[in-house]
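Readers of this paper often ask what the protein records in our data store actually look like. Nothing more is needed to write down the fold, since each code stands for a local backbone conformation. Below, we set out a record of this kind in full and without editing:
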Amino acid sequence: MLMKSIAVTVCVVVVSVVPAVKAFADKDVGPIKTQGKELVWAGCGVTKTAFMRELAQAYQKKTGVVIKLEGGGATRGIRDVQKNVINMGGACRARMEDDPSERYLDQIPVAWDAIVFIVHKDNPVNDISLSQVRDIFTGNITNWKQVGGSDEPIDLYVRASSLSGVDYVLRELVFNDYDKKFTPRAHVVASTSPAEEAVERTKTAFTATGSSSARRRDVKILNLAGVEPSVANIKKGDYMLFRPLYLITRVGESDPRILNFVKFATSSEGQEVIRATGSIPYTDAMSLMYPHFLHYVNAKSLGDGSGKRIVDGD
């Protein structure tokens, strides 16, 4: 009965999301009458680092509309749109429909990303298992020699908020527990960029981040259970920790500058801009939609991760 319910639900998701993406790409919202005025996008640091700068520049060249980019994380990208603080947001996690501060928003997928684990470029470790990841984040593994590295302490970096896009999805995909507590030994930073920067400069550092931004950093990206988080492996679903990256707008948005940007980002032209940065356009891997939904159902249903996982790479 549960799987039947899941199948019905995911059919609704597939039927609703695919036309939504196509509708934005195909819809002609008319000429832009406010060229040159600035829009503000804020949110997911992975999205910002990965392709938003190039996407905003291409849109400005095409339309004359300037998009100012700010960070602040996925939660800001969702909630500040609802509060009318910013024009558009970026999120690397799904909005929480049961939270009043995240309702009445459109969430448009534009790219695929994956949770990856990064270390300093001189760290001798090349591969890590899911069980080792869990043990590092919970404090059961504290030294690099426990995972085949040097006899040095592991400096783990995590985000301050459990609603951070990276750490929220990490809890979903690796722990099946959105409320999972990480070790108090971890270094706590505000967002993804400081965590990535810490790994660039600290030989003993370790953190989770998005593959799309990690590729643009001077770090080593670890294989997970023997699988490289390459573009090809993520697109095929062979690398298991994949997730969508979203644009966030208000339901019923009428500003033609915003509507045209969404249209541009989901068009073949905009998707090529994303592809050229080394990121994965959403339309390049539509087959990931169903397994991604199973990730979500798995985390919701199993809570603390006990029982059989739908996805496990140990």
